[in-house]
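WARN  no MSA supplied for this record, continuing single-sequence
INFO  ligand: 2-phosphoglycolic acid
INFO  echoing inputs
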Amino acid sequence: MRKPLIAGNWKMHKTINEAVELVSALKRELFDFNQADIVVCPPFTALDNVHEIIMDTNIKLGAQNLFYQKQGAFTGEVSPAMIKDCGCEYAIIGHSERRKYFGETDTMVNKRIQVALEEGFTPIFCVGETLEERENNKTIEVIDIQLKGGLENMKEEDILKIVIAYEPVWAIGTGKTATPRQAEEVHMFIRKWIEEHYSSSCASMLRILYGGSVKAENIKDLMKQENIDGALVGGASLNADAFVSIVKNSSN
Ligand code: PGA
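INFO  complex generated
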């Protein structure tokens, strides 16, 4: 039985004060909720303050990215040790916005996942096709390439520590959610892919999240799908009531 995981990706939103306000509201509602694993991923600048608030709760902390070098002359990057210092246990890797706006390739994503694993984080590895790719019937091909690239050289024991998020790019921030069926089709492909490249027990333990315009209103139908184990939530994670409802609706 895979426990649902709901992760909030705050993206480039929230100053420290705003982040503290939001996470304090989440803590009031969710501090002892244990039917789902809950993760919040604030911007780097607010990690430390948010961690202080959620330290003794079921809400875990994640970073939105990490760099694959341990230290050095890499202006503007943040190392695994730095985010660990702030209390992070998870790291989002390969988000489509990183790929699109910051030129992250599958090879870079792969290096980031490897470092994240070495440093004991749970990587939330994102894959997903663009609208053009979907319309050209390339969805499966694209996901296959992203899985091959992102997971290159990973062993079964590594896969057991990874969470995969399927996020169709056309559904991110657009209000257009993939239908539960469209999402399930890709989730099933991902699970089969892991089964073929690793083992069926590894595939059956892997958590695969859906991301793209998830709201309190659509999470239940998404979670009814056999291969959807949770969600990576952007916009709706910025509002405490909305995120709390998504978390609560994910497990019943
Ligand atoms: P959204 O973003 O929920 O605002 O569509 C999801 C994501 O980018 O992780």
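The CA atoms of residues 114 and 190 lie 19 Å apart.
INFO  checksum written, moving to next record
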